[in-house]
Amino acid sequence: MTRKSDNVAGSPVNEKAIAANLKALRVQIDKLDTQIVEHLNKRASVAAQIGKVKSEQGGEVYSAAREEEVLANVLAASKGPLTEVTLKAIFRELISGSRSLQKQTKIAFLGPEYSYSHLAALEKFGESESYMRTASIAAVFEEVGRRHADYGVVPLENSTDGRIADTLDMFIRMPQIRICAEIRLRVHHHLLANCEQPEIMRVYSKAQALSQCRTWLSKNLPHASLHEVSSTTDAARLATTEKNAAAVASRQAAVRYGLRTQFQNIEDSPFNETRFAVIGQSDSARTGKDKTAVMFQVQHTPGSLVDALSIFKNNKVNLTWVESFPYKEAKGEYVFFVDFEGHREDQKVKKAIAALEAECDTVSVLGSFPMALASDE
């Protein structure tokens, strides 16, 4: 006869059944892990073979178009329960590791490690590449132009503060550099400090970060003075060395420098986003979901800009970005930057560019690249 106590939760019989079930599930996990590792290494071996073929043909190891295709295939095949974000993160590192077997790609970026440009570069290329930090946007372009770096990551525009002037200026100075990919990073700023909120007397950060948090800072730290530094990472470093100091920076910077995150997501706009350009010697192949970037100059006469922009409407090409920038070589003259939906190999885009070249004084196609979705830092 079965005793009543044997069927009660926590009884010896029940605990043995739970332990046996847990052990069986863990055996399944261990078996699956072994199979996953085996398949990962098989995939990496095939990727290495592809790299050898590319090398013999003089092709680039990095292909933004192909990587977008791989991610699209993976997401389409998934039936859950892993989320899209998780799968993208896993395959980003898998692709990064496989790419490094073919060639150690060098990526130049603005600022020290854990700056937002560095985080954007990691988001696109993963942890397995070789990263080269620089002190300026101009240096990123120059490293790519001299082929000291294979690619560079530079900020292009911010949803709060608009264009990044140094980047546009470098495209004018080095029009041979191409955009081969874009990165859209939702930027979240955090207040980092190892002292309590009432004790904070100084807040350090990059000018753009302070600007993007100005309302929160004035409301919550009215007694603190704001100090601009070269990067959010430098701000985090200063917050560790000075008494009563805080930094506006990323959560990765908090981990790197051992700072406490006092407040999260203090940016004034919940839609704060920075778009970065990946620059290199060539642009990307067609994916079917692309953008093309162009810069041009028009005659300094009434209606000339309207005539140029009408070309896109007439060819049913949708503009996604329009920016004017002063041309330093001639007072009162401007260079215009646009990007729009479509690849330069698309027929209607070809027609639009040809018409633009006929209408404008100068036209430079900066590149075609896959459209990016926004990612969180």
Outline the structure in words.
The chain has about 375 residues and is α/β, with parallel strands linked by helices. The protein has three domains: about 20-100, Chorismate Mutase Domain, subunit A (Up-down Bundle), CATH 1.20.59.10; about 105-185 and about 275-375, ACT domain (Alpha-Beta Plaits, 2-Layer Sandwich); about 190-265, D-Maltodextrin-Binding Protein, domain 2. About 45% of the residues lie in helices and about 25% in strands. The protein has twelve helices and 16 strands. It has helices at about 10-55, 65-75, 85-100, 115-125, 135-145, 165-175, 205-210, 215-220, 230-240, 250-255, 305-315, 345-360, and strands spanning about 105-110, 130-135, 150-160, 160-165, 180-185, 190-195, 200-205, 225-230, 245-250, 260-265, 275-280, 290-295, 320-325, 335-340, 360-370, 375. The strands form three sheets. Strands 1, 2, 3, 4, 5, 11 and 16 form a seven-stranded mixed sheet that branches. Helix 4 (about 115-125) links the parallel strand 1 (about 105-110) and strand 2. Helix 2 (about 65-75) crosses helix 3 (about 85-100) and helix 11 (about 305-315) runs antiparallel to helix 12. The model has no long low-confidence stretch (mean pLDDT about 90).
Question: How far is it from the N-terminal to the C-terminal residue, by CA?
Answer: 61 Å
Radius of gyration: 26 Å
Low-pLDDT parts are none
Oligomer: single chain
Give helix % range. Answer: 40-55%
Number of helices: 12
Count of domains: 3
Shape: globular
What class, by secondary structure content? Answer: alpha/beta
Mean pLDDT: 91
Along the chain, the helix and strand elements come as HHHEHEHEEHEEEHHEHEHEEEHEEHEE
Measured by DSSP, the beta-strand proportion falls in 15-25%
